[in-house]
Specification:
- The chain is α/β, with parallel strands linked by helices.
- The protein has two domains: 143 residues, Aspartate Aminotransferase, domain 1 (Alpha-Beta Complex); 250 residues, 3-Layer(aba) Sandwich (Aspartate Aminotransferase, domain 2).
- Helices cover 36% and strands 14% of the residues.
- It is built from 13 helices and 15 strands.
- It has a seven-stranded mixed beta sheet, with helices on both faces. Strands 11-12-15-14 form a four-stranded antiparallel beta sheet, with helices on one face. It has a two-stranded parallel ribbon with strand order 1-13.
- Helix 11 runs parallel beside helix 13.
- The chain starts with a helix and ends with a helix.
């Protein structure tokens, strides 16, 4: 165990310890509660904690110091050395590709492309698959718009978009089986639902897709960095995720995973000089596309953004995604346990089962959620409202004292 990990496992104060004991007695709560303590070394990497109780990672997460330093180093190199520093930058981009592959358990970094957003990655799939009139695809009826509009655009090609009915943001597997037929070509679903925080059973869905020759696409933005995802075990064909939420990176930097299994089933909708096999051979035109995911990188890299993303990835991988997930679930369990006692008129919308729980806590209140957000902001607590619910989303560097503070402050106006 590293020094950081040891610090992360230190006991918290007497009040938190009593709550730990209470939670541990709950048989459905299986996670290791020792990691709930504050790790000052990791927490100190987040200057935002000096100004805010920041629990809005499901919207936009703050940059850690390591990412800020990486950006500063890139800018300094660019200012002082210009493009002579390019070999160093290219090596870092290659390392970032490897780190993304590690994060999602891809078999090769050749399956990873960098792009501008989750929307771009999902649009690559929508526009890159060869559709036939009469085909259909399935998406849940509560998806974030990024996982809706690229598919609706296919209706002009005669592709039917079927929406899977959900219950409190949860997809029942039998509903998928009811809607699917021989014309079903693809299922696209969020790894974690942005409104409820429900974790989709990706492995179960992926196995069904594989057995029925259906493409499996995942919007990973609410899961990557907070929830373990294994694209190989789950038979995921495509996954897209932006850096700016749980990955603690900058907006406008994202990755797109394309499994080797389907490289020949999807074609880039945007072609540029970097899409081809010999992009640096400027004087000879050879329109032979790259074989792997990098054929979706049409032009110059977002080198600055990838520097920041890579630094955040290395931090997350150092801590460990399993450890991060356990810490987050523990924090949400502390939060919801306290809310149940202190906010009696509030109903939990997010799953109660820890195995289905992410870092998103969605709450139905009797008060106007938009007004509540303003009141929380006045208390230097940053959360959000989505789908008419109050949404609180802590990350691994948050601590139990902050969960108590949220409940204590909120009690005044909820």
């Amino acid at each position: 165990m590293s020094q950081n990990e040891a610090l992360l496992a230190e006991k918290i104060g007497q009040k938190g310890a009593a709550l730990k004991s209470s939670l541990a007695s709950n048989q459905i709560f299986k996670y290791n509660l020792n990691i709930m303590s504050t790790n000052k070394s990791y927490r100190d990497l987040f200057p935002v904690t000096q100004n805010w109780t920041y629990v809005n990672h499901a919207a936009v997460g703050p940059l850690p110091k390591t990412s800020l330093e990486a950006v500063h180093q890139f800018m300094t190199d660019s200012s002082e050395h210009g493009y002579t520093a390019a070999p160093k930058w290219h090596a870092l981009i290659a390392r970032a590709r490897v780190n993304v592959a590690k994060l999602i358990h891809a078999s090769s970094s050749e399956e990873i492309a960098f792009t501008s957003s989750t929307s771009a990655g999902l649009a690559f799939v929508a526009q890159g698959v060869k559709w036939n009139k009469g085909d259909n695809l399935l998406i849940p009826d509560c998806e974030f718009p990024a996982n809706v509009y690229p598919w609706l655009d296919l209706q002009k090609k005669g592709v039917e978009v079927r929406q899977i009915p959900t219950q409190n943001g949860k997809v029942l597997f039998e509903e998928i089986e009811k809607l699917a037929d021989k014309k079903t070509r693809l299922i696209s679903i969020s790894s974690v639902q942005y409104g409820s925080g429900w974790i989709a059973p990706l492995k179960e869905i992926g196995e069904w897709c594989q057995a029925n020759s259906v493409l499996f696409c995942v919007d990973g933005i609410q899961g990557c960095g907070a929830v373990p995802i294994n694209v190989e075990e789950c038979h995921i064909d495509f996954l897209a995720a932006d850096a700016h939420k749980w990955l603690l990176g900058p907006e406008g930097t994202a990755f797109f995973y394309v499994s080797k299994r389907v490289w020949d089933q999807v074609t880039p909708s945007i072609i540029g000089w970097k899409s081809v096999q010999n992009p640096l051979d400027f004087d000879h035109i050879d329109f032979t596309l790259k074989e792997g995911a990098q054929k979706f990188e049409a032009g110059s890299d977002n080198v600055l953004g990838i520097h920041a993303l890579n630094a955040s990835l290395e931090l997350l991988l150092e801590v460990g995604i399993e450890t991060i997930h356990q810490k987050i679930v523990t924090l949400t369990q502390i939060l919801t346990t306290l809310i149940e006692k202190e906010w009696p008129d509030t109903k939990l919308i997010s799953p109660e089962n820890p195995k289905e729980r992410s870092g998103i806590v969605a709450l139905k209140t009797t008060k106007d959620p938009n007004k509540l957000i303003e009141q929380f902001l006045n208390e230097k607590i940053y959360c959000a409202t989505r789908r008419g619910f109050l949404r609180i989303s802590p990350h691994f560097y948050n601590n139990d004292e902050e969960m108590e503070l949220i409940v204590h402050k909120g009690k005044k106006f909820i």
